[in-house]
Design goal:
This protein is an alpha/beta fold and 214 residues long. It has helices at 33-39, 57-68, 85-90, 93-96, 114-123, 179-191, 202-211, and strands at 2-7, 27-28, 31-32, 48-53, 74-78, 101-104, 129-135, 143-147, 154-159, 168-176.
Amino acid sequence: MKVIIPAAGTGTRLFPHTHTKPKPMVYIAGKPIIGHILDRMVDLEPEEIILVVGYHKEQIISYVDEHYKDVFNIRYVDQQERLGLGHSIYITRDIVGDSDIMIALGDMIFKSGHLDFYNLHAKNGHCAGSIGVREVDEPQKYGIVELEPDTSCIKHLEEKPEHSASNLGIAGVYFVKNTPMLFEVLEWMLENNVNSRGEYQLTDALQEMIRRGS
């Protein structure tokens, strides 16, 4: 399994902290966010980590190469245009190929390691993928997952809905087995300009996969 870490954003909501550094390089408890994320992936032993970089990318590359080059097989992809999370995943397609992937957002830190998430995903058995969720108080601020009644199967996904039938917010960890369909859908979105306020949303791509029967 390959891991994609989107870390190209400008982190505008953290200004002035991100005025001269990318959000993954903001320090928490003596270490940048990206360091905490990578520490929690050691037990996962991924085949490869693909870091999508952009804003002040040299800071992330320098730090990761210095501290994790001997721990992981790491490759970098430059997202020259910040066109949303879906776009950041799409530009990794040549490296990912048809491998299973885990997507771990570059600004989310969890108490447990990512191996715990993977083990929960594995328990789901044969499925196109899994998404980590948590209950949220303001669904309109998150990508939201609605489940089939009395199951853990996803019925519907929506990015920041005005009115939501669910309070399960996407927690920033995704597992996708059907990567060929994911990249097919993302390419369709880009070619047909299917976006929200100029950004191509991963949530919309996953919902389209559900619509297509994946």
